[in-house]
Automatic annotation (TrEMBL):
Annotated SusD-like N-terminal domain residues: 25-237
The species this protein was found in: Marinifilum flexuosum
Keyword Membrane: yes
Gene Ontology CC annotations of this record: cell outer membrane
A Pfam family it matches: SusD_RagB
Designated name of the protein: Putative outer membrane starch-binding protein
InterPro entries assigned: SusD-like_N, SusD_RagB_dom, TPR-like_helical_dom_sf
Family: Belongs to the SusD family.
Compartment(s) of residence: Cell outer membrane
Keyword set, alphabetical order: Cell outer membrane, Membrane, Signal
Domain RagB/SusD: 354-486
Amino acid sequence: MRKYKLIYVIAFMTFLGLSACEDKLELDPYQSIDAELTNTSEKVMLTANSVYERMQNADLFGANMNYFSELIGRSSDVSWVGTFNTKREMGRKLLLINNADVRDVWIEAYYTINICNIVLSKLDIIDDADDRNRVEAEMLATRGWIYFELARLWGKQYESAGSNSQLAVPILLDPVEGESDVTYPGRSSVGDVYSRVLSDLTGAETLFTTYHTATGDSRMTYLNANVVKAVLARVYLQMGDYANATIKANDVIQSGSYGLVDAPLKAFNNSSYTPEDIFALQQTALSNAGESNAGLTTHYASLAGNGRGDMEMTSDFLDLFEVGDLRGGLTTDLAGSALITDVSTMYYIGVGQSSNNGGINTAKYGDGKKNTPLIRFAEMYLIRAEGNFEEGTSLGDTPLNDINRVRARSNASAYTTVDQNSIRQERYFELCWEGFRLHDLRRWKVNVYNPDDDTESIAYDADRLVLPVPERELEVNDNLVQNSGY
């Protein structure tokens, strides 16, 4: 089914890398792929498989989608102390329309969406029926997930009781295989983008369920039905649809396919999947997202040969954890030669060679060659707990029991009761620095800390918390309009 020669994979990845640069210049804002690369069954499936490589890119899930949320949503718990102005703008919530990181995420997202669109237009070329179902599901899931992230970053918060006519991003569903296919659509509304997200993800869920039932293949290293359900749980949570978020999270929990590892730190920096990984980016020789100034290790870590220590946490943040909670532990005496394998606590004083060493850094990202978890099983307990609490239900279990499961793994004391604040705080403690902060604050309608003036908070729906449409996109597409405030 996936019997591709390595040399062919490498050649195709090289083509994608080159065309991703060249076509961006020629076909702004959307890129093309030569039709000859998708004219046989094997080539269509190879093209489909390439989306996993694209997802690992630092301009998608490999780094920047994490940084955008954590930096724009940051409080006094973390500081950006690095020299990259693009990320300093995010930390200050004062983005410029020519921010290169913002530009590159837009480009990479639409390049990957176009791969999905091309493959979806060529499903009839695939010989095997099971392969067709699987590939269609993978492309829908990838496209839906990326549109969800784009809507959260370029559009204002989805309002469960609103019209959601606020602008998000363009929706492209037709393949671009040459210059004659390029179109210049305007931005669709938040409501329309979320409708597309739900359509793609629920369609993928149905196809995956059919495929796995027919083949008995759980395909842990690829997108599958449980991954899609977990993403849907996130989507419904962001929409304020707590009932459906709870159902999807409960489905994943009840699948019996996952479990919490026995210590929080063991969920990170692994070479292979752990029981806690619902979906992780598997770093390989072909995906060096963490080995240059691009991946999460680059800015979160400060170790020998790994990281710059640009994302520094504060002692006030660590003081929020109760004594004994493994998620707040700090190592202060690492040797200058220390690697992530020498770190036994969730935080450590950085020892890297960068000028930013000596600060407090998280151990969640300590080796760019190790896997990056994108969806962890612990998150499903937190979603189910929050959803059940907000709905006044106990599907699967009570919010108290779910929160205490996560706390017990961290050696934190058990709660006797939980309320909205404790559930939200637990989510922050468990998922901090994993790309959730801005999105959580906005859906909770909680104001965001202003790092330039600690007497001011920024409204959750403020213009400055939404990314600008990149300047270069506005220059080539007259149908695009800029977000307010830029």
